[in-house]
Write a structure and sequence with these properties.
globular, about 0% strand, mainly alpha
């Protein structure tokens, strides 16, 4: 492995680490329900950009780390992230060619699927109750996706991540 390839991988893992920290960073109560799924959007970007390198296993590991950090039932977010990233990778060629507004809609749908899977598993295991707030992160993901895409693409090109 060349030094440049190693640096590219470090850069990707650093972006994933920043996404993980952004997921657990405290926010004011008023905006907590609107918290975008930073980690999931970063995972979606890398799985679309480099599906052969950042895939379901990466999503599973990051979901497990998020479960541990949130103190949630172990494996719930791993399962949800893995399924969402599977869907993203399955359609990565199409997603790459969509205009940004269509990509944003697809990402919103993927985030909604993620939250529905998490809700469903928590409902089955703990009897969680359904709230309409469940979809607010998907709406904020719709707004933030073009910015996430732009930032990560610039990082990818600057550090020549392949």
């Amino acid at each position: 492995m060349s030094l440049q390839a190693a640096n590219g991988r470090i850069v990707v893992w650093l972006t994933l680490f920043v996404g993980l920290l952004s997921q657990i960073m405290p926010l004011p109560t008023i905006v907590e329900a609107w918290r975008p799924d930073w980690l999931l959007m970063i995972l979606i970007y890398w799985s679309i950009a480099l599906p052969h390198r950042y895939n379901i296993l990466t999503a599973w590991v990051m979901g497990l780390a998020l479960d541990i950090l949130l103190g949630a039932t172990l494996g719930v977010r791993s399962l949800a992230m893995s399924l969402v990233i599977y869907i993203a990778i399955l359609h990565c060629q199409r997603l790459r060619n969509f205009p940004k507004w269509q990509q944003s809609l697809v990402v919103m749908l993927l985030i909604a699927i993620y939250h529905l899977i998490v809700y469903w598993v928590e409902f089955v295991m703990d009897g969680a109750t359904f709230h309409a707030e469940l979809f607010l992160p998907a709406l904020s993901g719709l707004v933030f996706w073009p910015w996430i895409f732009w930032i990560l693409r610039r990082i990818r090109r600057h550090y020549k991540v392949r």
